From TrEMBL:
This is Protein FdhD. The gene is fdhD. It comes from the Bacteria. InterPro entries: Cytidine_deaminase-like, FdhD. GO terms for molecular function: sulfurtransferase activity. It holds the Pfam family FdhD-NarQ.
Length: 249
């Protein structure tokens, strides 16, 4: 279920030419935020805020990042807790119960990439990377540059980590045979690349990350240590990690 951009009554301030302030009350948008509890039966529990919607994908992506599963079929049970009731005695859909099979599939070890881009790939990434959105939702997308039968996937959430987990969970659920590792794909962000986001991209098999915001120093270090592309797709393109390979055009 999705409850995006609820509106609340708020005072809008207006500054006149002489510097005086006036105020008028009208509706203003907000970002939806609700708590989610993911309960792994006979395992740990995770509590965090999120934007409602794509909760099952979010749970799969989180459990993949934390090493609890490698394929969607590693979960034998996924359901909203029927006992979670709100003030109106309805299910709040804020508690997910999941059960991992006794013998989940072995998880492949993330490989170290060569972090090389050809000019066509670099141009595609520069054009496809979304603009920064400091006041809106954090967006993550999976992109396969060039001709590919595998479509791009885009998810949004309050936090960049959640949006990345939703993308990874979507790959697990909707293309379980070949989804991960996401060979050949890049992770596009509209938020700042951090070591945690690079770690998630690496575990899922992405070739690298592209963002309109400059990465942190530690994120660059992680990308270089693991052979990941780290591209700043701002007003000018800066390849913080990786090489441009004209011969690969």
């Amino acid at each position: 279920m999705s409850r995006l951009s609820p509106r609340v009554s708020a005072l809008h301030l207006h500054r006149a030419a002489d510097g005086t302030l006036s105020a008028s009350r009208r509706a203003a948008p907000t970002l939806s935020e609700e708590p989610l509890e993911i309960r792994l039966i006979d395992g740990p529990r995770y509590h965090f805020p999120r934007t409602p919607g794509h909760d099952v994908e979010l749970a799969h992506g989180l459990l993949y990042a934390e090493g609890h599963l490698s394929r969607a079929e590693d979960l034998s049970e996924t359901r909203y807790c029927a006992g979670a009731e709100g003030e109106d005695h309805c299910n709040t859909y804020n508690v997910l119960d999941l059960r991992v099979r006794a013998q989940p599939h072995p998880r492949p070890t993330p490989a170290t990439g060569n972090a090389r881009l050809n000019p066509a790939e670099a141009q595609h990434l520069l054009e496809a990377t979304p603009p920064a959105q400091p006041e809106g939702l954090r967006r993550a997308s999976a992109l396969w540059p060039g001709a590919s039968p595998r479509p791009s996937i885009t998810r949004e959430d309050l936090t960049a980590r959640n949006s990345v987990d939703k993308v990874v969970g979507s790959l697990l659920l909707h293309n379980p045979a070949t989804a991960l590792p996401a060979e050949g794909a890049f992770l596009l962000l509209n938020s700042r690349p951090t070591p945690e986001l690079l770690r998630r991209a690496h575990r899922a098999g992405f070739r690298g990350v592209s963002s309109p915001l400059r990465p942190t120093e530690r994120a660059v270090g992680y990308a270089r240590a693991h052979g990941l592309v780290a591209l700043y797709a701002g007003r000018t393109g800066v390849l913080y990690s990786g090489e441009l390979d004209p011969a690969g055009a």
